[in-house]
Write a structure and sequence with these properties.
globular; mainly alpha
Length: 146
């Protein structure tokens, strides 16, 4: 899986041209977490609806309340789903003690919960963008329980 924002990250770090996301997650987890939390399309959609995302648990509930105007656009929905998943993962990593980003062998970033369970946040975000279920706040609640 190719993440265009990784190219931006590499440009801001000298010598990072050959750095894989896996290396970034292990050698500089804070920068990798910041990179994964960019979610520009989601932030733009939220801003357009008068919601400023602050990477908090409450912001997930606020996103759940947005009218799903994007669902009619097959070009926006998948990208928005990816952003929603990355945003969900970012909130989990920032607020659930011991949660962290890891990468599956296929390159997909997932959240490793303190219980040892890996949460496919991209799948959760895609389902939310396409159908509204599960709600992001519900997915967070399940992750925070382990």
């Amino acid at each position: 899986m190719h993440f265009p924002f990784l190219d931006n990250w590499r440009r801001t770090r000298p010598g990072a041209d050959g750095v894989a996301l896996t290396d970034a997650l292990s050698s500089d987890p804070e920068s990798a977490a910041q990179l994964l939390s960019e979610c520009e399309l989601l932030r733009e959609q939220a801003r357009g609806a008068g919601l400023e995302l602050d990477d908090s648990v409450d912001s997930l509930a606020a996103l759940d309340q947005l009218p799903p105007n994007w669902r009619g656009d097959p070009e926006v929905s998948p990208w928005l789903g990816t952003d929603a998943g990355l945003y969900l993962g970012s909130v989990i990593v920032r607020t659930v003690p011991g949660a962290r980003w890891v990468q599956w062998p296929d390159g997909q970033p997932v959240v490793l919960l303190p219980s040892g369970r890996e949460m496919d946040v991209l799948e959760e975000g895609t389902a939310w963008a396409e159908t509204g279920s599960p709600e992001l706040s519900q997915a967070y609640a399940e992750a925070s329980e382990g």
